[in-house]
Amino acid sequence: MPFVVFVLAAAVFAQGTSEFMLSGMLAGIAADSGVSLGEAGLLTSVFAVGMVIGAPAMAMAASAVPRRVSLLGFLALFALCHLVGATTANFAVLLGTRLVAAVANAGFLAVVLACLPVLVRPSLVGRATSVILSGVTIACIAGVPAGTALGQLWGWQSAFWAIAALSAAALGVLWPTTSAFSRSDAPVATAPVWTEWRTLARPRLLVVIGIGVLVNAATFAAFTYLGSITTAVTGPGSSWVPVSLALFGVGSFLGVTAAGRYSDRYAQRIITGGAAVVTALWLVAALSAHTLPGVLALALVTGAGSFGVGSTVIASIVSSASETAPRIAGAVATTAFNLGAIAGPAAAGIVVGDATQAHRAFWVSAVFAAAATFVVFAARRSVARAKDAAEA
């Protein structure tokens, strides 16, 4: 695996930490900015919206310049946004920096995923994707708790300074790696980039994208309320809340790592069998949500299963789209991931009235996973019928 892939994963780690770390800092930000806690929560929402909008928009904009320039530019902009955020208490400015940072994050991730098929051998795309996505899972395990701790010790601005420093460090390492990007900087198509969106009309790709949205919706529906579910079992202020979140993060890392080893050879089997297994896991989690051992055990296992299947689906989207749409393949995968991250919590929020009902999020996750399983098996049946008709 090229060294540059691990550097890119480190940059994704900084970006993932920034995306999720604000949950433990909203009270401080609200107090310093003079807004309500609910208004401060917009900082999280606007980041998610920026990710969804930014992926396709930035992928198209970046197609006009070498990929190395795009990556460095997006990372530099991301770092700059955190420098500005660390030096202001103006909520409007802070909100703007979060939106721009999300767009830069989405552009960076989209270009990174699009680069993988030319940075590594085709047989290693799945493993490289798992390395990149491990940056997000490690952010959940270490980055978010560390960022929250910094915010508690030295103010929320210190966490922004830390993200800026990590991004600058990654930028400094990526800057001289021109040779690693030489192949990915070569022109990959001569037609206008907008013509590549026609690839979305391919039924096979649409199915994989749909599965990706559903699997990730299941993941984030539960993860969003995991802390509240733990609190309902253990009581307010419980030290078990960070433990349950950390276990989910550890499971996620193990899942993407294990799937990365085999997804290039057995992607279809992992997606098909994994979707059914994850559905069963969310059902067990929903039934076990009234006990602390059940919550902790299932946090680890569902994290592994969800991210193992999810990372395999993302790699499949990249591989499938790269065949006819190399410049937007990463954007398509990034958008599918983030649409799930928005749809899952939104659906769970409809049925979760208060902390005592937080366990309902697990049932929502089970529904999304079951829908993904249905789509998987329906697609396989359709392919089998088409094959039989062709042979006849």
Provide a descriptive summary of the structure in words.
With 392 residues, the protein is mainly α. Helix content is 81%, strand content 0%. The model is unreliable at 184-189 (pLDDT under 50).
Question: Keywords, please?
Answer:
392 residues, mainly alpha, 13 helices, 81% helix
Question: Mean pLDDT, as a whole number?
Answer: 82
Report the biggest beta sheet as strand number plus sense, adding barrel if it closes: none
Helix content: over 70%
Secondary-structure element series: HHHHHHHHHHHHH
Tell me the layout of helices and strands.
Layout: H1 3-20, H2 26-33, H3 37-40, H4 42-62, H5 67-86, H6 91-119, H7 125-154, H8 156-174, H9 203-234, H10 240-288, H11 292-322, H12 329-351, H13 360-391
Short description:
With 392 residues, this protein is an all-alpha fold. It contains 13 helices and no strands. Helix content is 81%, strand content 0%.
